[in-house]
Specification:
This protein is α/β, with parallel strands linked by helices and 292 residues long. It is built from 8 helices and 10 strands. Its EC number is 3.5.3.11.
Length: 292
């Protein structure tokens, strides 16, 4: 069932007709209530879907076709505008339902705070959970200008939930001095600037673990993804992020869910950001869904 049965908009390319036949469920989280710079990521999910219609269904990276994966696009969760706390509760409840039904949750954001309720639902299901976080920003603040519900806090919350030693951040190139000090002192695994090489070193340590992957599109250099709320110069290329996805697909671990967040289409009239995002989602579906 879709959130809105009268919905007549686009779904991600080759979405199955029913929820019941799907192994994975794509769901949108149209919220940007706590962003500190440029809003607009609430429009990301629908634009990623629209861009997916230009994709090839076959991936030469995975050597697989989308018809080989059963997934259903459920549309966007109808989050209440401006109410962050209630929105997060709704996401957590929905993801818990997906897990109870044996589905692979694949979330489209929306701001990065939306990963926090997902982490909570995943940790209840998988007590040995590890989180792989690919991002430009550390997201390790306890609060932002007095607000504990902020897009700059989800990874700090994750560390406090599952233990900092179970959190692995890659590509980080922005944050407060205190955030980097916390990462060093707490024992979490934070790798600055690069993604592929440190990820390759870490993956053997996660052998057999249940892993959740969260990707912020701003890990890419703005030359490759200008359509995001808090762009940071000095990022990785689209090719490098695809390479990281391939390594995750080949690793001996169990990926149990993923999200892609912070796509803000208004800042990219060329649509290269949403085009790239839709390709990353395709590779998640083809490479990760059957790794549970």
């Amino acid at each position: 069932m879709r959130f809105d049965e009268s919905y007549s908009g686009k779904v991600f390319i080759m979405s199955r007709a029913t929820y019941e036949e799907a192994d994975a469920v794509i769901y949108g989280m149209p919220m940007d209530w706590t962003v500190s710079f440029r809003p607009g990521s609430r429009f990301g999910p629908v634009r990623i879907r629209e861009s997916s219609l230009g994709l090839e269904e076959y991936s030469p990276y995975a050597d697989k076709h989308l018809e080989e994966v059963a997934y259903f696009d459920a549309g966007d969760i109808p989050l209440p505008f401006g109410n962050a706390a209630k929105s997060l509760d709704m996401v957590e409840e929905y993801v818990e339902g997906l897990l109870n039904d044996g589905k692979f949750p694949l979330g489209l954001g929306g701001e990065h705070l939306l990963s926090w309720p997902i982490f909570k639902a995943m940790y209840r299901k998988y007590p040995d959970l590890a989180i792989i976080h690919i991002d430009a920003h550390a997201d390790l603040r306890e609060e932002y200008e007095g607000e504990v519900l902020s897009h700059s806090t989800p990874i700090r919350k994750a560390c406090e939930l599952i233990g900092p030693e179970n959190v692995y951040s890659f590509g980080i190139r922005s944050g407060m001095r205190e955030e980097f000090a916390y990462a060093k002192e707490s024992g979490m695994n934070l790798f600055k600037f690069d993604v592929v090489e440190p990820l390759k070193r870490v993956l053997p340590k996660l052998k057999g673990r249940h892993v959740y992957v969260t990707i912020d599109i701003d890990v890419l250099d703005p030359a490759y993804a200008p359509g995001t709320g808090t762009a940071e110069a000095g990022g990785i290329t689209s090719k490098e992020l695809l390479e990281a996805q391939i390594h995750l697909a080949k690793a001996d671990l169990s990926i149990v869910g993923a999200d892609l967040v912070e796509v803000a289409p208004a800042y990219d009239p060329t649509e290269q950001t949403t085009i790239a995002a839709s390709k990353f989602v395709r590779e998640m579906l083809l490479g990760w869904v059957n790794k549970r």
